[in-house]
Design goal:
By secondary structure, the chain is mostly beta strands. The protein contains one helix and 22 strands. Helix content is 5%, strand content 48%.
């Protein structure tokens, strides 16, 4: 495909480079499928079946297979050396473009990179990867809002997206964030010089970049649902002006 691009830690695993090395995608096992669901089983002691428990997902296991054609043997070995070093410390971005919406995930090495020299100018390679966050992400958004105009949120993913919200205000009695009928009430005072940041996935509140324990009287966190417009509003306890920036990404499973 003309617009196909796969990168690991910013290095292209597809396409042709200026030194005459041509890389081609073979397959990406584990990328197109959902990771395995998991749950804690709790059998009913005096009844049939089990109690309903939350469904979570295990790590996403990815195996990238490709091939390389080079104009000479030295360049082939040079490229093989680059492949074996890619992302060796983990927490690197793996990105796939040209097969539907562009998607990416943060990955770690899962096993050794394998290279097989078929001829002096042709090799096959395999890169096993693991994403401890099993979700895939796409386009990112930073949506503003304030006490007058709510932030209008929307994303094109397939599962709910958890936002990180930055709050700027001056209120001695805190503020309330509302999304999809669910409220997060922050009782900690906020000053214009020290904005708050709330991660809706983890529930962590940061003030001036430092983690703060407590400070929330109500923590009914809601995600941004896919495929529909929804608003996040802010109200301050003193009725003063406050603003928010809601950051999130298209999210896929």
């Amino acid at each position: 495909m003309d617009n196909e691009l796969v990168t690991l830690d910013g290095y292209p695993l597809t396409g042709i480079t200026r030194d005459g090395v041509w890389k081609r995608l073979g397959s990406i096992e584990g990328w197109w499928d959902s990771p395995p669901p998991r749950r804690q089983r709790a059998d009913r002691t005096n009844g049939d079946g089990s109690f309903r428990t939350p469904i979570e997902y295990g790590n996403r296991l990815i195996t990238y297979e490709g091939r390389i054609i080079s104009k000479n043997h030295d360049y082939l070995h040079q490229t093989a050396g680059i492949l074996t070093a890619l992302g060796h410390r983990g927490n690197t971005k793996f990105l796939v473009q040209g097969h539907g919406p562009t998607q990416w995930a943060m990955v770690d090495p899962r096993d050794s990179v394998k290279t097989s020299f078929e001829t002096d100018t042709y090799l096959n390679f395999q890169i096993p990867l693991e994403a401890i966050d099993p979700f895939k992400y796409g386009e990112s958004y930073a949506v503003p809002g304030n006490t007058v105009d709510a932030a209008s949120l929307f994303h094109r993913g397939t599962v709910p997206a958890w936002p990180v919200v930055t709050v700027s205000a001056s209120s001695s009695s805190g503020y309330t964030l509302t999304l999809n009928g669910r409220q997060v009430v922050v009782t900690r005072a906020i000053a214009s010089s020290s904005p708050h940041e709330i991660d809706f996935r983890t529930g962590i509140l940061r003030v001036g970049g430092s983690v703060v324990r407590g400070g929330l009287s109500t923590a009914n966190f809601a995600p941004v649902n896919p495929g529909m417009a929804q608003n996040m509003s802010i109200s301050t306890g003193t009725g003063s002006y406050g603003s928010i920036t809601v950051r999130y990404s298209d999210t896929y499973i």
